[in-house]
Amino acid sequence: MTTQNTKVSNPVVAVVGAYGHTGRFVVAELRRRGFVPILSGRDADRLHALATTQPGSEVRPASVDDPASLDRALAGAAAVINCAGPFASTSAPVLDAALRARIPYLDVAAELEAVADTFAGYAGPARDAGVVVVPAMAFYGGLGDLLATAAMDDWPAADRISIAYALSSWHPTRGTRVTGQVSARRRDGRRVVYADHRMRYRTGEAPVTQWTFPAPTGTQAVVAEFTMADSATIPTHLKTPDIRTYMSVAAVADLRAADASPPVAVDEQGRSAQTFVVEVVVARAGETRRAVARGQDIYAVTAPLVVEATHRVLTGPDAPAGVFAAGALFDARDFLGSLSPRHLTLDIG
Ligand SMILES: NC(=O)c1ccc[n+]([C@@H]2O[C@H](COP(=O)([O-])OP(=O)(O)OC[C@H]3O[C@@H](n4cnc5c(N)ncnc54)[C@H](OP(=O)(O)O)[C@@H]3O)[C@@H](O)[C@H]2O)c1
């Protein structure tokens, strides 16, 4: 079954978690791209306060504990973007509402387990409802997935996919910190890695090693096995037994600092000074291919990623129904190219 792509003329997109740090970037990007956002979330006062800065946006409070309120929030929308996390609590109720409304669902989940749950639990229901679902359409998840897909190019399989993140700093939002706590509880304090074709739990401290990023970033100490949502999306469409993820030690230290402070806006778009480099290397029989993206602010860049995906789902050829990783649904090079150079600088070999 394919989705009915009859919504091209309807630019209304509901954003759940609209007044969160990431939700605000998504609302602003939707408006910049000509969409009309419905501002949704559980705090009516904060939604109305946001609406004063986003003229033309409609406010529809909704709670994930109240399906009828979610139905009201999604009524008449062409798609819904879920920015309310931890997604362990919000994915299922917002997904259920999207299936009832028969509209595309996209989210920005970074939680590997929540993303895996969406693939496992909603593939059948989404197909039956004729709805396209794209979880983790964000910096963690969609970006690594698209880079890995682009790097693979015509390879049918790789022996290993490595994803290395260099963040100049990481001032986490409240949502990131709470989400990290939820994931840690879910894993019972263990780490998770994708090895030998499946997710495996590991105990003890993650190893620290070195990764040489392209100049000018150069060689950095990185925490290995820093597994993110792309390890849940990649195995759904790319053949590889091993996914290895690395994160700069300095960023991990920032994230875990007892006095971690939230991001501070330094430009008119509200972006922080944080810069990132994501390098994906795919390896097969001694050969390697790579794809690199650079940019500013991992929260801010999530907005063009998820809004471009929404645009493509709504205006592209009829999307198949089901749950999809970014690289499985979109032409990875074309998608990434559309974000360059405004949002990303790319180097895809
Ligand atoms: N994959 C990625 O690269 C990526 C990028 C950005 C963000 N994220 C994820 O997106 C989520 C939000 O991040 P953020 O930076 O925007 O954090 P934030 O500024 O703290 O915002 C969190 C938002 O989620 C809402 N929310 C949380 N729990 C909810 C619940 N049970 N029901 C309804 N609303 C709920 C919050 O509403 P209240 O204030 O009313 O609680 C708020 O609007 C986090 O899970 C984060 O990991 C992922």
CATH architecture term of the largest domain: 3-Layer(aba) Sandwich
Global Rg: 19 Å
Corresponding CATH superfamily of the largest domain: NAD(P)-binding Rossmann-like Domain
How would you sum up the global shape?
globular
Please, how many helices? 12
Distance between the termini: 35 Å
Helix content: 25-40%
Strand content: 15-25%
Small molecules bound: NADP nicotinamide-adenine-dinucleotide phosphate
* Widest beta sheet: strand line-up: 3-2-1-4-5-6-15
Structural class: alpha/beta
Report on the structure:
This protein has a 7-stranded parallel beta sheet with strand order 3-2-1-4-5-6-15, sandwiched between helices. It has a 7-stranded mixed beta sheet with strand order 10-11-12-7-13-14-16. Helix 1 (about 20-30) crosses helix 10 (about 300-315), helix 3 (about 65-75) packs across helix 4 and helix 6 packs across helix 10 (about 300-315). The model is unreliable at about 1-10 (pLDDT under 50). It is α/β, with parallel strands linked by helices. It folds into 2 domains: about 10-140 and about 300-345, NAD(P)-binding Rossmann-like Domain (Rossmann fold); about 140-300, Dihydrodipicolinate Reductase, domain 2. The protein has 12 helices and 16 strands. The structure holds NADP nicotinamide-adenine-dinucleotide phosphate. NADP nicotinamide-adenine-dinucleotide phosphate binds next to helix 1, helix 4, helix 6, helix 7 and helix 10.
